[in-house]
Structures are given as C-alpha cells and as structure tokens.
Automatic annotation (TrEMBL):
SUPFAM superfamilies (alphabetical): P-loop containing nucleoside triphosphate hydrolases, TrpR-like
Domain notes for this protein: Domain I is involved in oligomerization and binding regulators, domain II is flexibile and of varying length in different bacteria, domain III forms the AAA+ region, while domain IV binds dsDNA.
Binding site for ATP: G198, G200, K201, T202
Basic and acidic residues composition bias: residue spans: 126-136
Protein known as: Chromosomal replication initiator protein DnaA
InterPro entries: AAA+_ATPase, Chromosome_initiator_DnaA, Chromosome_initiator_DnaA-like, Chromosome_initiator_DnaA_CS, DnaA_C, DnaA_dom, DnaA_N_dom, DnaA_N_sf
Domain of life the protein comes from: Bacteria
Gene Ontology molecular functions: ATP binding; DNA replication origin binding; lipid binding
Coiled-coil regions, chain positions: none
PANTHER family to which the protein is assigned, alphabetical: CHROMOSOMAL REPLICATION INITIATOR PROTEIN DNAA
Length: 493
C-alpha cells in the first residue's frame, strides 16, 4: 500500500495517488508507445508520496539509471499534470526503498528473505554503499561480454529439439547452414529472423550458438537488454574499450529481441559493432518480432545494415506442426509422470483450437497434466475443452501499417497522401489527416511521436489533439462514427 506523508493525511490520499498513478501510466503508454513503455516502464511502481515527492521503484539499478537519464523529466511532467500534490519524483531500486522511508511510514512486518537478498547493503552507510557498488561495477563490467556471462544458453534449445514444419523450414535451413559453416566468407550475413511471440525464433538463435560453439567458434549470445546493460555498465565503470574489443574479437554475434534496443548512444554502439564485424567477415545473427523496415525506433543506418542480409520470417504454426509439438511436449512430461496419458483425439483437439504459439501449447500440456493428476479421471475431449478454455483465443488481427492507413484515407476523401503529410490546413485536408492520425493510434502500436514523424514530422501534441478531436466527434456524430468503423474494418480485413 503506498504511504502518504502530506498535510491532507492518509484519508483518501492513497486512493487519489493510486488513481493518479494509473492515469500517469496510461499517458506514458500513449505518448511513448507500447514497445518503449513495456521495455522501461512495465515494472515501474509508485510506492508512495512524501512531502510532495512521488517515490517510484524499479527492480534493478540498470532500469533506475536508464529512466533517470532519459525519462525523468517526462515522468515528472505527466505526474504533476495528474496529481497536484506532486512537485518532484525520486527513483529507487525495489528493496532499497524502505531504507529511505520515514520511520512512521515503514511497514510493521519484517523484510522477506528475497527482499533482503535484492538489497544486501541496505543497513550499511550510504557512502559505503556507493563505494561498494562502484567497485563491484568496475569489477563486473569487463565480464559482461565473457562467455560465462553472455552465453547463458539453455541446454534444451538445440537443433535436435527443434521441430521443423512448413512455417519454419526456411529459417531452420538457413540457421543450420550458418551454424555448421566452416571456413570462407560468412553465409547470408547478417541473418535476420523475425516472428511473433512463441514461434521459435529464440530456440533457433540459441541452437545456432550451441552448434557454432561446439565447432570451436567464439560465439557471444546476447539479448538486446543484455547488450544495453553491458554497454551502460562499461561506460559507468570506464571499461567501454574492453567491452567493445571483446565484442569485436569473436567469430559470431547472436542478438535476440533487437526491437527492444533503445537510446541513441546504445544504438550507435550497436551499429558500430555490426559494421566492425561485417567488415571483418564475422557472422551476425539477429532476431526480432518484425522485419527491419518496421523497426522505426531503430537508427535508419542500422536498419539498412540488417536488411542487407537474408531476412526470413517464421510464420504461425500450422495445425500439423502444432500437433507434433504437442506430442513432443507430452512425451517429455510422461518421462516424469508415466501415468499421464493423452488420447490422440485430445491431442488433435488441442492442436486445432490453440492456433497461437508454442508457449500456449506448453500451457495446454500443463493444464492437461494438472487435470489428470488432481482429479484422477481420464482425459477426454470434453475435459480438455474445459482445461484449455482460457488459452483458446480469437485469431490475431491483421497488422496494420501507417502507410496503409494513409493510402486508404486519402483515397476515401479524394486527397493525395502528399496532402496528408503537407502543411495544408484547408478543411478538405485537415479532417482526413486527423482521421488518419486517429486510426494510426487506434490500430497500430506506434507512439504519438512516431505517428507525428510519419505525418510530415509533426509534434506529438498535434497527433494527440487530432486523436482527442476525432474521439469526441465519433461520439457526437453517428455518420462519422459509421464511416470510421468502416475504415477500421477495411484496414483489418
């Protein structure tokens, strides 16, 4: 429960703060976009308000440092707009927050063991804490790119455990060729794999790293988050040169989830690393949730480099492949639970109704196992239907692009796409432009600043004004509401 230390007291204050924090999160999500918000603010929590200071906590020092450096002013401005009592914000690492809380406001129960483990220096003087943290960072930073730290590979994610089907055959073939390639110039450099959640791209990335390492190659496997942490920590520890040299002295670099790469300096360093490895004839493998051209937050030169190799999409799993994956997962569970029996009819049913991704298939197997072990009754199609009901989802809507919205709206209102991007402010252009901006916010995950850039370099406040104006207009004008809904359906079909 957030603590309140304002003159108005706690009565009603906690609820007001909680409501305000909810509005702050919604505004940050709208202004920054889903990708940025999920990466940096998804685990940010408001722990209370004391003397006008909103106390915000995150689980790691890296997140605290990044948000303070890049978004502190934005968070403060939004918070002040939503809660009159807030005059400043302070960021803390979760677990260390209690050290700073007023004595009267601290919770009565003792800290749990995990909380103490997360902040082992809470009881020590602040000066000693900072000296210890600085020393530990300098010692750890050079090791962030070492094999023991960077190549935290899952031993289960190898080529032998990857199930190949029509949707992933090309990606598997390219990955296998690259991993087993010995001598000569690199193949398909860089290899860029993209797919939605749970379709196996991380499995293939780790399989490449496993196989290449087994052949004696110097390989580093990193997620984008790990790359960012390593680079920032090396700057703070003044070991950036060692970090760069370690990444450039390898045979293969494997980077996963590159869509989460944020920050101008980090993207520049990533681009320099990519260029250095490509120029040196070293293999690069990259994975993301979308093709390079759709990574709008990424530097254009980096996108161009990534698109210059082999770009392969891993498509959604077909029913036959889902059935094979289920059978393999069930066999793995049966090794631990020999009495677990799943009839073929149940396997076929689950493979047919769960058409999303491999992780949902894992969840289905876990639910079937729980039903079988907890009830003791045999599995049937009827019981399986009840067990996996929460995993059965409607098919994901088509991914809509801003360019598609602009083209459709321009054609519908008899203006050109260039008109929508221009500075023209005639009524014949302003209305369709605002509708196109509104649809871009509603149907895509792009942030307001990104949408503004795609509409002739406009400011995000212009986009926000357009969105709010159309939202009000569709509520007041049934004809316009029907027109906008028609445009939505046309874009999503």
């Amino acid at each position: 429960m957030p603590y309140i230390d304002d003159a108005r007291g706690a009565a009603g204050g906690s609820e007001d703060l909680s409501d305000a924090w909810g509005r702050v999160r919604r505004r940050l999500r709208a202004e920054l976009g889903e990708d940025v918000f999920s990466s940096w603010f998804g685990r940010l929590e408001c722990d209370g308000l004391a003397a006008g200071t909103a106390r915000l906590s995150v689980p790691t020092r890296f997140l605290k440092s990044w948000i303070e450096s890049h978004y502190a002013d934005r968070v403060l401005a939004v918070f002040k707009a939503e809660h009159a009592a807030v005059s400043r914000v302070a960021f803390f690492v979760r677990g260390a927050v209690t050290r700073e809380m007023p004595v009267a406001a601290r919770p009565s129960e003792p800290a749990t063991a995990p909380a103490r483990a997360a902040a082992p220096v809470v009881a020590r003087p602040r000066v000693a804490d900072e000296a210890r943290e600085s020393t530990s960072e300098k010692a750890a930073a050079p090791d962030l790119a070492d094999d023991s730290a960077a190549n935290a590979l899952d031993p289960r994610l190898t080529f032998s455990t990857f199930i190949v089907g029509r949707s992933n055959a090309l990606a598997h073939a390219a990955a296998d060729r690259i991993a087993r390639h010995d001598g000569g110039a690199p193949l398909y450099n860089p290899l860029y794999l993209h797919a939605g959640v749970g379709l196996g791209k991380t499995h293939l990335m780790q399989a490449i790293a496993h196989e290449a390492q087994g052949r004696g190659k110097r390989v580093i496997y990193l997620t984008a988050d790990r790359f960012m942490y390593g680079f920032v920590a090396s700057l703070k520890a003044q070991t950036a040169l060692a970090f760069k040299e370690r990444l450039r002295g390898i045979d293969m670099l494997v980077i996963d989830d590159v869509q989460f790469l944020q920050g101008k300096s980090i993207q520049q360093e990533f681009g320099h690393t990519i260029n250095a490895l490509l120029d040196a004839g070293r293999q690069i493998v990259v994975a993301a949730d979308r093709p390079p051209s759709d990574l709008e937050a990424l530097d254009e030169r980096v996108r161009s480099r990534l698109a210059g190799g082999l770009v392969v999409e891993m498509c959604p799993l077909d029913e036959e492949l889902r059935s094979r994956i289920l059978s393999m997962r069930i066999a793995a569970v049966q090794a631990l639970h020999p009495a677990f029996e799943v009839p073929e009819a149940v396997v076929a049913y689950v493979a047919r109704v769960i058409a999303t991704n491999g992780r949902d298939l894992d969840g289905a197997v876990n639910r079937l196992l729980a039903h079988a072990t907890l009830t003791g009754s045999p599995l049937t199609v009827e019981t399986a239907e009840a067990a996996v009901r929460d995993l059965v989802r409607t098919r994901d809507p088509k991914r809509v692009k801003i360019e598609d919205i602009q083209k459709l709206v321009a054609g519908r209102y008899n203006v050109s796409r260039a008109d929508l991007l221009s500075e023209r402010r005639t009524a014949a252009v302003v209305k369709p432009r605002q509708i196109a901006m509104y649809l871009s916010k509603v149907l895509t995950l792009r942030s307001l600043p990104e949408i503004g850039r795609r509409f002739g370099g406009r400011d995000h406040t212009t986009v926000l004004h357009a969105v709010r104006k159309i939202e009000k207009a569709v509520g007041d004008d049934p004809a316009l509401n029907e027109e906008v809904e028609l445009l939505k359906r046309m874009l999503q079909e």
